[in-house]
Predict the 3D structure of the following.
Amino acid sequence: MIETYEFSSIEELMEFISPWGESTALDGYIFRGHSQEDFKLIPTALRPECVDYFWKICGGRPIDNQYNWQNWQVRAEYQILRRFYRLADQRGLEVPISNRMRSNLAQEFDFLGLNGLHDRDTWIPHDLLETAALAQHYGIPTRLLDWTYDLYVALYFATRGALKKDGRLVVWALNKERLTFLKPTVNRVDIDFITPHYAGNPNLNAQKGLFTHWSIELPSHFDEVKNITETGATLTDRRPLDEQIQTQMAANETINIFKRLVLPCSEAKKACKILDRLGYDSARIFPGYHGVSEQILNQHRYY
């Protein structure tokens, strides 16, 4: 399911992805850059190593290790999304329309919002996906995973993060077209692709960003209580995206769903120079004064 391409130099990688190279092998794919090869495809809110960080942001931790329970995890994710929505709205920023979020918005806490979900509904529900995508793009931990339609943007993030690091960096490529084709079939994979509105979000537009979402079915309140008391609570699924997809792929599926472009971190400095010359610098990736300043102040790291 995963095909790996290893390159010893940035020139080899750039030749591969160039219009005259083998870039057609990546048609229909979306991309994500990691500065270290061992980083996994797990969103921030679900990473095992980020559990303490996540619960501190949410305002504490449930007792008796309940932070691993799916029910607590979902409620924490909802509350942090609501806090983001509420504060952004209070500051006059444009936020997506969501009746669930706007109900009781004057209250600091909302313990009833999730109760509006119907039995066997999913998390994240459709009316909150736009809010979750906006929050994720600006650093709020959610169960969405960032991707881009532009391979060079993914390479920008991988190489900038790999400067002065050892090991190897990697650009992941995910076959979006194949997975979209599989969804309506008997072999459907429970993955959604979310592309928020680019208008009004210059960063997301410049980065050609989108998100993957692995939805989960929420039990009814009765089933949740019964599950906890009789069999033990349902635990949060913290597996990487590639493992989750692999469990649902048909045994006879022959098309690669993932590709990995791997490069030594020692090539990151040269790669940053090349991307700069192609116009993929900080001033482009982060339009506005911040991106311009970032480019000027950090250019010395690779020149």
